[in-house]
Amino acid sequence: MTRNPQVFPEGLYIHLPFCAAICTYCDFASEIYAAARATRYLNALEKEFAARISELGLGTERYAPRTIFLGGGTPSALNIAELTCFFDLLEKYVETREAAEFTIEANPGSTEPAKLDFLRARGVNRISFGVQSFQPHLLKLLGRVHGAEQGAQAVALAREAGFDNVSIDLMHGLPTQSLADLKSDLEQALALKTEHISAYGLIYESGTPLKNAVEKKQIERLSPEEEGLHYRTVMETLERGGLPQYEISNYARAGLEAQHNLIYWRNEAYMGMGVSAASFSNWTRSTNHYEMDAYINAAAKTGHAIAESEQLDAEARARESLVLELRLRRGVDAAEFKSRWGLDITTLPALEKFMKQNLIEYAGGRYRIKQEAQTVADGILSDFV
Q1: Same-domain pairing of 257 and 376
Q2: Residues 163 and 27 grouped into a single domain
Q3: Is residue 63 domain-shared with residue 192, that is, in the same domain?
Q4: What confidence score (pLDDT) does residue 57 get?
Q5: Which of 44, 196, 267, 325 could disulfide-pair with 299, CB 3.0 to 4.6 Å?
Q6: The domain that contains 210 carries what CATH number?
Q7: Exposed / middle / buried, residue 118 (Cβ in 10 Å: 0-12, 13-18, 19+)
Q8: Is 292 a member of any domain?
Q9: Per the domain annotation, does 16 fall within a domain?
């Protein structure tokens, strides 16, 4: 069956919201792990799977997405018995073994050999560890539950379990994070020789303890100049270390870019399951209930838990797609983009403006944000919406 990647969801995201502790910067839909809640959640999730996948019109076939991503929360917070229940329900509806990339997010503090062996046996072929930093004082600031040495230990355990595609997350631009702290983190990350690194600048989300501490002047955020220096240091150091940048916050060895995230950045269709999960298919963007009880109650009743839905018209799809693709280091091919989305980007005033300002360049037949302008990428991209 020929499947249009703009219509049929080739990516499957599943949100597993449980954590050992809630980080000070986090505004994701997550809560402290409790066995009874996990059981209720998995039951609701199965109802959603049954309803949503039946709508794909596959008949007796199981859904076979190109990529699967288990995010959270901390999916590895579930114990093996709970993970077994989850994978049993997943495999009831999804052909997991055909996925080219099957990723799980994990916390170094909840990584253990038996769990890693289980995940590999059930078809997971990529693991992403939320390391964030190797500095004890920064881990404490962020509310992380793992220690400074556990990031490296988790990667080593994953290798022993047979994972040959490993990613780690790092954060930069943190309050009290010195340039020396950042350089040390980058050196230690490169020494692990992972295939992929995501390096995120801290976003102060409303209502989080870290944002509240800044507002109360209990802690001082870095200046914009310092944050910019951190970002440039990350880019330069990781590229020198053999991990070229392929997206604003992501770096990978050749051919090992995150295929699931590339579906997002190319604005292709994907299905999201679980609390707060977003979906985009048949030109419609939808988001599940953000609050846990609202999600569980809705999914348990009807199998549907969508809180918001929006049908995008042709121009909205095109502009959103342009913003997403300009995040990629490779940039945008104007002819290919017009063929896919019907928009000639060379006629856009914003493109002309940023070309004149030397913030966007035309190279190799593609328009892209210049690397030295990536520190102000958000401002550039907002002009294209």
Answers
A1: no
A2: yes
A3: yes
A4: 87
A5: 44
A6: 3.20.20.70
A7: middle
A8: no
A9: yes
Distance CA 299, CA 296 (A): 5
What's the rounded Cα separation, in Å, for the pair 133 and 185? 6
In order of 128, 155, 197, 360, the CA distances from 77 in angstroms are 14, 17, 22, 42
Domain of 368, in residue numbers: 333-382
pLDDT at 22: 79
Whether 363 and 220 share a structural domain: no
Give me the percent of the chain exceeding a pLDDT of 90.
Answer: 80
Q: Which two tokens stand for residue 45?
A: 């999730």
Q: Where among 265, 298, 324 does a domain terminate? A: 265
Please give the structure tokens belonging to residue 254.
Answer: 């050749």
Summarize the confidence of residues 222-235 as an average pLDDT: 95
**Is residue 63 classed as helix, strand or coil in its secondary structure?**
strand
The domain tally of the chain equals: 2
Pair 221, 349 in one domain:
no
Q: Which of 1-15, 167-181, 227-241, 320-334 has the lowest mean pLDDT?
A: 1-15
Angle at 126 between CA 166 and CA 230, to 5 degrees: 40
Please indicate, yes or no, if residue 322 is contained in any of the structural domains.
no
pTM: 0.95
Q: Which of 126, 65, 71 is nearest to 97 (CA)?
A: 65
Instruction: Report the chain's terminal Cα–Cα distance, integer Å.
Output: 34
Taking the CA atoms of residue 9, residue 4, residue 336 and residue 368 in that order, the dihedral angle to the nearest 10 degrees is 0
Chain centroid to CA 153: 23
